[in-house]
Amino acid sequence: MPKSKVRKKAAYTPPPVSRTPQKVAGPTHPAYLAVMVAMWILGLGWLVVNYLAAPSIPFMAALGNGNFIIGFSLIVIGLLMTMRWR
């Protein structure tokens, strides 16, 4: 059986160090955190009010199952905001 050829590997050379300063993102503004948490609370509150008092509130009764879309979308917006929070 023929013997396989040995491959010659080049020596590892690390990538050159960049001398340009990197901008480091600082912490997010405290208002961002407040809006993020407010979205969660508003979404949860919308769903709780939908379950408890939707038939007695005219505009919520007219929305029907749209109340679930509104409540869950507020919660999802708050969760999506967590990806940009530092």
UniProtKB/TrEMBL annotation:
This is Cell division protein CrgA. The chain crosses the membrane at residues 31-53, 59-81. Residues 1-25 are annotated as: Disordered. Keywords: Cell cycle, Cell division, Cell membrane, Membrane, Transmembrane, Transmembrane helix. NCBIfam families: PRK00159.1. It comes from the Bacteria. It holds the Pfam family CrgA. The gene is crgA. It is a multi-pass membrane protein. It is found in: Cell membrane. GO terms for biological process: cell division. It comes from Pseudonocardia kongjuensis. The keyword Metal-binding does not apply. Belongs to the CrgA family. Residues 1-10 have a biased composition (Basic residues).
